[in-house]
Design goal:
The chain is elongated. It starts with 16 loop residues before the first helix and ends with a helix. Helices cover 62% and strands 0% of the residues. Helix 6 runs antiparallel to helix 7, helix 6 runs antiparallel to helix 11 and helix 8 packs across helix 9. The protein is mainly α. It has 12 helices and no strands.
Length: 270
């Protein structure tokens, strides 16, 4: 069976693409099928969800599920999507990264708890380093230590610090994944869509305030009074206090706010 031919017409709206297609079907030999955008807009997409010519409003499309929303965007004219539609793509991107951020937070919380337990109960005192003797050190070129002749030796990293490093890395990823929500919230605010801006902003300012509160609230509630009563005991349980009185309750509060204002972030993430 011989292969057919495909003719792709690209141009601005109202530039005559449909007229050329009609002329090809009328005058060319063989059967020529029109699979243009006009056909899909008129016959495939429901009328109430069809974007009009020059219409940059996407409120009807944004109420659709994500899969249908992507299809709604593709009904716009040609591969060059209007800039306003590209900006709307920040919303599903922000929701996706917010779901990932929530998963990372669920991972960071037990890591922080493990780091606190290890710091409080698994710590073993190490003997202090020997005092420096003499004027010349063992470093290359001489001089008094400490000095660094190259990369640090990670093999000497205390094992009790590993959960803490993993926890800090997870928190850094958690904050990074919330950045698209900031951009989406700002864009929605510029467009005057205040509710969408608030929902997107929650996925950015929620993680930011969670991290700040984790560091400040335990100090005000537990650490400062504890330091007055028993500084040694407070120092031993310092990290555990941050997790128990900061990370865990603020994570539960953030979850409650997400369930109230953006439940898909939590429900679809789990």
């Amino acid at each position: 069976m011989p292969l057919g031919h495909i003719v792709i017409l690209n141009g601005a709206p109202r530039s005559g693409k449909s007229s050329i297609v009609a002329e090809i079907q009328r005058t060319f030999d063989g059967v020529w099928m029109n699979l243009g955008v006009d056909v899909f807009v008129r016959e495939v997409t429901p009328e109430r969800y069809r974007p009009g010519m020059g219409d940059t409003s996407t409120s009807k499309c944004e109420s659709l599920p994500p899969s249908t929303l992507r299809a709604c965007w593709t009904t716009r004219w040609g591969p060059s999507v209007p800039s306003d539609i590209k900006a709307v793509a920040l919303l599903p991107l922000a929701r996706g990264t917010a779901r990932l951020a929530w998963r990372v937070l669920l991972l960071a919380t037990p890591l922080g708890l493990l780091a606190g337990i290890v710091d409080a109960f698994g710590w073993q005192a190490r003997p202090p380093p020997p005092p420096f003797q003499g004027e010349e050190g063992a470093c290359q070129g001489g001089g008094r230590p400490p000095c660094f002749d190259g990369l640090p030796d990670l093999s000497s990293l205390p094992p009790e610090l590993v959960p803490m490093l993993l926890y800090l890395l997870a928190i850094l990823v958690f904050l990074s994944l919330s950045l698209p929500s900031l951009f989406a919230g700002v864009w929605e605010g510029i467009r005057g869509r205040w509710r969408s801006a608030g929902v997107a902003g929650l996925s950015f300012f929620g993680p930011l305030l969670l991290v700040i509160g984790t560091e400040t609230i335990p100090h005000a509630v537990v650490v400062m009074p504890c330091s007055v009563l028993d500084p040694n005991l407070c120092s031993r349980f310092h990290q555990l206090e941050h997790v128990v009185f900061g990370v865990i309750p603020l994570t539960l509060l953030y979850r409650a706010m997400l369930l109230r204002w953006s439940p898909r972030v939590v429900v679809q993430a789990t």
